[in-house]
Amino acid sequence: MEGTSFKVIVENEEQVELSFTRLWDPSMEGKLVPLNIDKRYIMLRGSSGFYSYAIYEHLEEWPAFNIDNTRIAFKLREDMFHYMAIADNRQRFMPLPEDRLPDRGQALAYPEAVLLVNPVEPDFKGEVDDKYQYACENKDNRVHGWISNNPSVGFWQITASDEFRSGGPLKQCLTSHVGPTTLAIFHSVHYSGEDLILKFGPNEPWKKVFGPVFIYLNSLTDGDDPLLLWEDAKQQMIYEVQTWPYSFPASEDFQSADQRGSVCGRLLIQDRYISEENVPGNCAYVGLALPGNVGSWQRECKGYQFWTRADEDGYFSINNIRTGDYNLYAWVPGVIGDYQYDAVITIDSGCEIDVGDVVYEPPRDGPTLWEIGIPDRSAAEFYVPDPDPKFRQYGLWERYSQLYPDGDLVYTIGTCHYGKDWFFAQVTSNAGRQLITHMKELLGKLGSNSAWPMRVEPINYD
């Protein structure tokens, strides 16, 4: 993704904007991804940090290709930055990168998870380091980074809007992890796989602006509590969110506030088995994404998405929407299914569209007899066993086989409660593994000269 051309876009007393571009041509086929790439960096007078954004373009006549992940990665000085913060309840001193090497760490079920057996700092011995333990949903992924105690300096990645991210507000992405590494994720297939790969066929033009994101640096005088750097970073994040969309990016591909539009309305729920009257979509998630099918926003990754939360009466307002055609999607915590507005919404510059009352009728064949859990797109209400304090969340899935060594759990309606009797994850039990092991032992006893053929394959036990 390295630029081959450099240009000063803006240079004045208040702002500098630089562009690093790489233009693609057919001679690069098979060597470089068929994209025109424009990487931008902005510094503003009086701003403690810099902004960065990127513009990717695929022309219609160019070959097909896929994108798995694209992001900005920052590798900080490991002799300085040892404390990482993602949220008020997710921050700590971190191991060193050498603690993950074979002479100090032991790889576990997947390469990213490493048991620290001989770390430089003995207090970390027995812990599991795994970058996926610090993933975060798009809706909450606003600020994260690192603190140095000597000198007292903070390095923070702030994302004021996730309009350019894929998969909607509940899509999880990586944040910061051992390195010290900080990531600004533009597009990722993590936790989704094949469905979220950006796939471009032949004769498919595409252009998208990722960012800007803000890299914020702050500092303290000696003697002050270093955690004040985190508190200051949160305040800076609030300021960045309030000033979105930014007015200063020079690219005409990034739309300013006056070029965008808005949509408002009210979401109501029609469920005659609950109430004779329509009830408000209390705290509903309401958003715009490219036109598609019901729920397709969860797999949409080529366009932009704009989301908000309705109030307790179901009223919602989505502001600063880029121009284009969208479907309106929604879901309500506690209500099964997805809503999709029955018409395409076209956003023009300066438009203010009021869709009025929109009514969602959840799928239902009769009154509810029983249910397990809450339809809120979270497993938090189910039984989550206590993790090993040093392993944190790693390996919780293994607890299922420990709790049910001889078979799967049995849930009795009317007696059991999902908070203590329904395991939070659907995992493979030991029953299938034991059967395969037994079959392999049997084959071993038969020997290689057996006259009848047999093949042993893993079985999917539902």
Automatic annotation (TrEMBL):
Family matches, as Pfam families: CBM-like, fn3_3, Rhamnogal_lyase
Name the UniProt record assigns to this protein: Rhamnogalacturonan endolyase
Native organism: Carya illinoinensis (Pecan)
Domain Rhamnogalacturonan lyase: 283-354, 368-429
Coiled-coil residue windows: none
